[in-house]
Amino acid sequence: MTLSKISGQPCKNCGNGKGKLQRIIEGWKNYIFPDPQIELKAKYRALRCASCDFNRDILDNEITGFLKPLGLMIPVCTKCWCPIEAKTRSMDAECEINRW
Ligand code: SF4
């Protein structure tokens, strides 16, 4: 079962689960080994995500909320359930609502 099936939303980033996984892996690779041009594009995308209602910290809940004072955050796009850090660094990824 793909995450888009769980969320009930079609995901532009995945024709199937494997395509989405490959894009997220590409995004994490670009996070670990930063390229200046990709980082520039990722910063623009992250700014657009920062003001989006679908951007949520998945640690901000009753169970893991105690981690918040430690400054830990895992921002996720709740439109497609992709981690924002990886999604913004996957050059083939698209915003589900065309904000970038
Ligand atoms: S990818 Fe698009 S829909 Fe998702 S959080 Fe960013 S701006 Fe919002």
Count the beta strands.
3
| N/C terminus separation | 27 Å
Fraction in helix = 40-55%
The ligands bound in this entry are: iron/sulfur cluster
**Number of helices in the DSSP assignment:** 4
Low-confidence stretches: 1-8
Q: Biggest sheet: strands, sense, closure?
A: 3 strands, antiparallel
Oligomer: single chain
Mean pLDDT equals 85
Tally of domains: 1
- Main β-sheet, spatial strand arrangement: 1-2-3
> What best-fitting shape do the alpha-carbon axes yield?
globular
H/E series: HHHEEEH
Please state roughly what percent of the residues sit in beta strands, choosing from under 5%, 5-15%, 15-25%, 25-35%, 35-45% or over 45%.
5-15%
Radius of gyration: 14 Å
Q: Provide the structure class.
A: mainly alpha
Task: From the structure above, extract its key features.
100 residues; mainly alpha; 3 strands; binds iron/sulfur cluster; 8% strand
Overview in brief:
By secondary structure, the chain is mainly α. The chain is built from four helices and three strands.
Describe, in plain words, how this protein is organized in 3D:
The chain is built from 4 helices and 3 strands. It is 40% helix and 8% strand. By secondary structure, the chain is mostly helical. The longest helix is centred in the first third of the chain and has 16 residues, at 17-32. A hairpin with a 4-residue loop joins β2 (75-77) and β3. Residues 48-49, 52, 54-55, 77, 79, 95-97, 99 line the site of iron/sulfur cluster (SF4).
